[in-house]
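Weekly structure sync, notes
Attendees: PL (lead), two postdocs, one rotation student
Agenda item 3: pending single-chain targets
PL asked that the sequence for the first pending target be pasted directly into the notes so everyone works from the same version. It is reproduced below exactly as submitted, 115 residues in total.
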Amino acid sequence: MQGKIYIQDIRLRAFHGVLPQEREVGNDYIINLTVDYPIDTACLTDDVADTMSYADAAEVVKQEMAVSSNLLEHVAYRICRAIKARFPQATAVTADIRKVAPPMPADCTAAGVTL
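Predicted structure, written out during the meeting:
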């Protein structure tokens, strides 16, 4: 049986973007992560060792967000790749990254990418 873990609205300060100001001042980001994985064993054993750790997944997100990039696409790709490396049982990973109040001529709460 397939299951999912998800972490919603991880809020971090990071330094991504193509503008020099974005790299110096930074911005707030909201990250949502969903990971599909076989859940059968955890359902039967009720043992944390048989599932995926939310805390470990959040730490992977935090580590990848700390590496500055020009594009959020690149950051999302790195998060997905790092989750798959840390949790080889993962069958699918979705990373949604939103830059809060992006520096652009539009009134919006966020802009981002989902991979």
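Discussion points:
- Residues 72-86 form the longest helix (15 residues).
- Strands lie at 2-14, 27-38, 92-100, 110-114.
Action: rotation student to compare against the earlier draft before next sync.
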